[in-house]
Amino acid sequence: MITRLDQLPAKEAISPGHNACAGCGALIAVRQILLAAPRPLIVVNATGCLEVVTTPYPYTAWNVPWLHVAFENAAAAASGVEAALKVLERKGLGRRHNIIVFAGDGGTFDIGLQSLSGALERGHRLLFVCYDNEAYMNTGIQRSAATPPGAWSSTTPAGKQESKKDIMSIVIAHGVKYAATATPFLWKDLVNKVAKAFTFDGPAFLHVYAPCPRGWYTEPDKTIQLSRLAVETRYFPLYEVENGRYKINYFVTRPKPLEEFLSLQNRYRVLLRPENAELLQKLKQEVEERWKRLEALSQQREAPSSTHLVS
Amino acid sequence: MLRQALLYLMSGNEAIAHAVMDADVDVVAAYPITPQTTIVEKLSEYVASGMLDAEFVPVESEHSALSVCLGASLTGARVFTATSSQGLALMHEILYIASGLRTPIVMAIANRALSAPINIHGDHSDIMGSRDAGWIQLFAENPQQAYDFTLIAYRVAEDNRVMLPVAVNVDGFTVSHCYEGVRVLGKEDARAFLPRTPRPRLEYETPITVGAMFSSMHYHVAKTEQAKALESSLNVVKEVFRSYPMREEGYDVVHAVNTDSPVMVVGLGGVMGTFRHLGRRMNVGVASLRLYRPFPAADLLPSLREAELIIVLDRAYSPGAPAPPLAADIKTLLHTAGLQTPVWSVVCGLGGHEIRLSMAEKLLQKALKAVREGAGANISFYLGEEVNTP
Ligand SMILES: Cc1ncc(C[n+]2csc(CCOP(=O)(O)OP(=O)(O)O)c2C)c(N)n1
């Protein structure tokens, strides 16, 4: 269990000088994850902001081996890396590595879902990390299946009407041994989940909530505060599912009002207008139902032992 | 020199699977589609029985099959996949990435018509749609060549001067499912022919970034280098073709007979055997391209120089184009060489439409007659469709 910064096992894998926006939640999360990921390591990245901002040729921000193929196939490319190293090790021509896949919500919830599903079903030993900024940021803030109801995007100018896809349930339905949610606000929770994910012989999944100042129209210095509010309003519950057993890692007994989280983001400007009370109600109801369902699944009624995670 | 060269009765698809086993391939990923399926069925048997020490990755789509091969290839592994028709079309995006990232992937394509209307039989519509993806394109005429070209493909792809993916094309059903005696090199000789050569790969100790974002200028440079690599791979293909250990005379990238005849037939794939058979009898020249990309212009030109009429067979249609794919290539080649030889552009055998000996014979008779009468004109028509035939 990692409880102090000096216990982080690995070196920085991303160097300074990349092109991410100030306050990019994805980059913060990715750095944290890579500080905890066991070596030797190979990173496979789907097309999206993370890929674009870290590899402006002839520069690269990565000092671990890194592969990008396309938008929808990161899980398949990673499957190939994993399968190949298994046989190369057997033949004395190489050795197995730990593999982390990074994909945005688009590369996970939408276009990447098929190859993710295939990789999970086949049981490749890898950690798939979805950094969720709730829209296609790289192409200019279009809605994705992860965009929540009421949120503005460049293709939902009046606020998205549909619900956010429940990616965790989809992943868990594949029978993966380990799946968890995390956010950079609770870094100890995040890094310990990364370490734990690699103790399983098979695919693991991490759904990381990653605020995006550009796409959410928020101030760069609000990223961590937003990550925190997402958890404390129960909007993004932190939990893990180990061999089918649910456990809430951060028990929110008295949730903050959702408006506190929404009002910091200009993408909810329209939602917070009185004429959209119904849509706001839909979002609130979804948040409530998600929490209730999790509570029922984890059968927890109070704070678990992991309160030490709050630093 | 050779330790063994056993003769087996095999279909074209089995011959390819056997070559993949002999090549000691590490990762096989594929998705079923007729008429390719029996290749990977056979390979899954080899893997399950321990005859081939490889990982068989049964993916959920062709798009993922090629993506798995890409990831695997970049770890230094030797990889294989196979597809046809819609499967190749689904891979389209990744075809360009495979060549752009310079991965020595080998893929067998049992050529088949594209939907719609849906049709499972052989023609070249699938590969012609992927013609410009930067892959080396070999065309095998029969199961023996299917075996030989698969081994040759690995040797070429992994050559440090090349580092490009190679497609081994076989006609759907007429080659993929046709049974013939096939001489195989056997594991030891195949492995001597295919040594493992080191190449840059994903490895923790020596981190590399693969698939980075390129500016316009760098993209232009990289693509130009890639195109040059494909062009200059011609010499490597020829070198490997010539030195292929099982055939004393090796292979030619263009196989031509009767080159002094006034009529020359040019084409790709299994149907060229039919025309060669007739050509020998009727004294008509036949040039079969075993290598289609890079285009072996200098090797083909000598057999076209003396011809008074050139018949180009295309088993694909290029709607709205001035000529179907191979005819367009040949016309360009003739123009570049300053030749004005008339070309009959013949589209034939779409969707497995049978090219019967009698049809082919009638075509050659008409061509010989036209030459005798000095009536040289460019025309286009469909073989087997009587309406527009000359
Ligand atoms: C097949 C395909 N369709 C569309 C695109 C264009 N595209 C590139 S990145 C992207 C959105 C990425 O969104 P997400 O996965 O959420 O990651 P983010 O940009 O937010 O980091 C899109 C639509 C593409 N590269 N490939």
Keywords:
heterodimer, A: 311 residues, alpha/beta, Rossmann fold, eight-stranded mixed β-sheet, 11 helices, 8 strands, 35% helix, disordered C terminus, B: 390 residues, 2 domains, seven-stranded mixed β-sheet, six-stranded mixed β-sheet, 16 strands, 40% helix, globular, binds thiamine diphosphate, PorB-like (chain A), pyruvate synthase activity (chain A), TPP_enzyme_TPP-bd (chain A), THDP-binding (chain A), oxidoreductase (chain A)
Topology:
The complex is a heterodimer of chains A (311) and B (390).
Chain A: H1 25-36, E1 41-45, H2 49-54, E2 66-68, H3 74-90, E3 98-104, H4 106-110, H5 113-122, E4 127-132, H6 167-172, E5 178-182, H7 187-197, E6 204-209, H8 213-216, H9 223-232, E7 239-242, E8 245-248, H10 258-262, H11 277-298
Parallel strand pairs in A: 1-2, 1-3, 3-4, 4-6, 5-6
Antiparallel strand pairs in A: 5-7, 7-8
Helix pairs in contact in A: 1-7, 3-5
Chain B: E1 6-11, H1 12-22, E2 27-30, H2 37-48, E3 55-58, H3 62-73, E4 79-83, H4 85-100, E5 106-111, H5 125-129, E6 136-140, H6 143-157, E7 166-171, E8 179-184, H7 187-193, E9 209-210, H8 216-243, E10 254-257, E11 263-268, H9 271-282, E12 285-289, E13 291-293, H10 297-305, E14 309-314, H11 325-336, E15 343-347, H12 357-372, E16 379-382
Helix pairs in contact in B: 1-2, 1-6, 3-4, 6-8, 9-12
Bound molecules: thiamine diphosphate (TPP).
Decide which structural class fits the backbone of chain B.
alpha/beta
Ligand catalogue: thiamine diphosphate
> How many distinct domains of chain B?
2
The biggest sheet of chain A amounts to: 8 strands, mixed
Helix content, binned percent of chain A: 25-40%
What's the gyration radius of chain B in Å?
21 Å
The biggest beta sheet of chain B reads: 7 strands, mixed
Question: Mind explaining what this structure looks like?
Answer:
The complex is a heterodimer of chains A (311) and B (390). Chain A has a single domain (5-299), classed as 3-Layer(aba) Sandwich (Rossmann fold), CATH 3.40.50.970. By secondary structure, chain A is α/β, with parallel strands linked by helices. An eight-stranded mixed sheet of chain A has the order 2-1-3-4-6-5-7-8, with helices on both faces. Helix content of chain A is 35%, strand content 13%. Chain B contains twelve helices and 16 strands. Chain B has helices spanning 12-22, 37-48, 62-73, 85-100, 125-129, 143-157, 187-193, 216-243, 271-282, 297-305, 325-336, 357-372, and strands at 6-11, 27-30, 55-58, 79-83, 106-111, 136-140, 166-171, 179-184, 209-210, 254-257, 263-268, 285-289, 291-293, 309-314, 343-347, 379-382. A seven-stranded mixed sheet of chain B has the order 3-2-4-5-7-6-13, sandwiched between helices. A six-stranded mixed sheet of chain B has the order 10-12-11-14-15-16, sandwiched between helices. Chain B starts with 5 loop residues before the first strand and ends in an 8-residue tail after the last strand. Residues 386-390 of chain B have low confidence and may be disordered. Classes of the chains: A alpha/beta (311), B alpha/beta (390). The interface between A and B is large, with 48 and 45 residues. Strand 2 of chain A pairs parallel with strand 9 (209-210) of chain B, so a sheet runs across the interface.
